[in-house]
Amino acid sequence: MKRQYFGTDGVRGPYGGPLVNEVFAARLGYAAVQWLAGPGERRVQTARPTVERRAGQGLGRVLIGRDTRGSGPALEAAIAQGLRAGGAQPISLGVLPTPAVARAVRASGARLGVVITASHNPAGDNGIKFFGPSGVKLTDYDEALIEGFLTAEAPAAPVQTLASSGAIDDYIAAAVRLLPPGALRGWRIVADTAHGATCATTPVALRALGAEVIGIGDAPDGGNINAGVGSEHPEQLAARVLATGARLGLAHDGDGDRCVLCDERGSVLDGDEILTILATRAITLGTLAAGTLVITRQSNLGVDAAITAAGGRVLRTDIGDRYVIERMQAEGATLGGESSGHIICADVAPTGDGLVAALKTIEVMLATGQPLSVLRGVLKKFPQLTAALKVREKRPLDTLVNLPLVIRALERELGAQGRVLVRYSGTEAKLRLLVEGPTAAIVEAGLARLRTAVAADGLL
Predict the structure, then answer these.
(1) Same domain for 43 and 143
(2) 46 and 146, same domain (yes or no)
(3) pLDDT per residue as tens digits for the range 300-321
(4) What is the pLDDT of residues 338-351, one digit of tens each?
(5) Catalytic annotation, pick one of 119, 231, 339, 425
(6) Does residue 119 carry a catalytic annotation?
(7) What residues contact residue 174 under an 8 Å CB cut-off, 6+ apart?
(8) Integer Cα distance of 188 and 246 in angstroms
(9) CA distances from 30 to 26, 50, 151, 153, 198 (A)
């Protein structure tokens, strides 16, 4: 089933636009409840074998969390109105990282979780994504079913959203338990929380473990989320690590499901490097479930080489953490993620969790006694360049004249020594280009050829 409104990570777009506004949010909340009461009642994973709908009980609780965008409260009220109109009981968790919402849904037995966020996008954007009772994002199929109920307007209903503050404390406590008490005494860590949802979680957890925390991007005002800070902009993080002599730095995106790290020398590690460190350590200990790491088409070919050499195997999926999680579940794997910093440690958390990823990497540092600059050496990356080009419209790639020809030519030239990946962003009006190959010169020339072809096809 084809989806019209949902992208790779929920419904997302500029606030006030055709998709992200109060009217649509109310309709989406109402549609989600209709799905729960109809086909979704049989398809969604539940924490109980059956769901009783006694008179007056409605369709159960739906937890709502959001990031720090100024548009968040209005969208939360609107989706709560739609949920209430459909017979569900909306419960607001307030500002909370996406993984904390997922954990709360699973722990509480709620019917659904809703997160109002645009992740790493600018403050002017916002979005809505859903989690099932297991704490995992809904499948493409289930999202398509929800879209089928969007024809109905949400009836007027009083907004009676209950508030719950316990989820944040539970999330922090669970994170702290990943390391021994006081494990980070004597550690200086720079934490960039992107003026987002992790401002009140990641620094608190690190300090509870004994670390001295130097904060960046920790003063949200509703309009500065991701603005020059966070996982998309790690330059300030790297500079601060060097200036303060920190042991490491970490940066999240606006909703906290991503993590990038910075070693003590000021060099940034992406998701591929974090995953390779975690996977090779697990292989050494004999604890990598199914002997398998699941990554996406975006990840560097060097990951495959490192994991294979260590005795494991790598499986690749389409881009999007939900596809990684689906493949992990199918294979019995517990470790996977994306180069962007979505790291899924399924034995700890049901979805990508930036704080968990950082703590699990620190665990390797503590166990081996090695700094991050040494640990990262396990991955030897193939030369790779990427570009994100803002486009006027997302015309189907197979209808273009020049770009497909250049892609095929590059693929023939690179053969098994490299790859080309061209795709539209699932959340922004951008065309993403990637070229990987045996030398930096070949990669640079290949990316330039792709750029020229994109311009010639009139996409820019």
Answers:
(1) yes
(2) yes
(3) 999 999 999 999 999 999 989 9
(4) 999 999 999 999 99
(5) 119
(6) yes
(7) 103
(8) 5
(9) 6, 22, 10, 8, 29
